[in-house]
Specification:
Elements: E1 4-9, H1 13-23, E2 29-35, H2 38-47, E3 52-56, H3 64-71, E4 79-83, H4 87-95, E5 100-102, H5 107-122, H6 129-142, E6 147-152, E7 155-160, E8 166-170, E9 173-178, E10 181-185, H7 189-195, E11 201-205, E12 208-211, E13 215-220, E14 226-230, E15 235-237, H8 243-251
Parallel strand pairs: 1-2, 1-3, 3-4, 4-5
Antiparallel strand pairs: 6-7, 8-9, 8-12, 9-10, 11-12, 13-14, 14-15
Helix pairs in contact: 1-5, 2-3
Amino acid sequence: MRTLRLLIVDDEPLIRLGIRQAVAGAADVEIAGECASGDEAIEAIGSAPPDLVLLDVQMPGCSGLDVVRRIGPERMPPVVFVTAFDEYAVQAFEVNAVDYLLKPFDADRLLHAIDRARTRIAARTDETLGERLQAMLDARERRPADRLVVRSGERFEFVPLDAIDWIEAADNYVQLHCGPKQHLLSETLTNLERRLDARRFVRVHRSRMVNTSRIVAVHVLVGGTYELELRGGLRLTTGRQYRNAVQTLIRD
């Protein structure tokens, strides 16, 4: 049986270690490399495409889906997605016949997913993988999220969008401001903006989005900027390049 070259992509060292240990006894699987970020994965796939990629969906900065977008669905090697919890993503993977692993997973589930991928590769049934990956991306971007899942240690919290007052960029993360509570989400503001309903959340600054239902007043400042007054009295300054977005809010 032909050896399968496997690329492991996950930002959690313990997950990568667990995958290495699980496949160590499989003589027909060779680990082609490990990547701790989406950017590393893009470089590794571009320089030496593996036979199969185990790809974490939720990584800071460049997520697994960003890897697919930047490489291009038509050029992406066969992939098994790994996700901690993303209900819609799991549904999309199932609909588009792309395999996934839900964390935490055991060695049997991992090896079964690899065997399934090997069968598809050998039978050349993944020739339409690019089309299915593109369909998955399109479906995900067409359907706005109705809640966000944030990780806190070994716990996952479900944050309803109605609970969020505003969202702030924090390097490759975003900070969700929910009244007195804050949550850190491993996603960039630009990526999150694509997933949210533009009628409910508006980008008003390169580092801020606001829940439109929280805005009680808009104050005009000099230089083409505004100050948004939210419930509770918090005021946020807008960016000059987002002037049209704020004016649309005022008109609507």
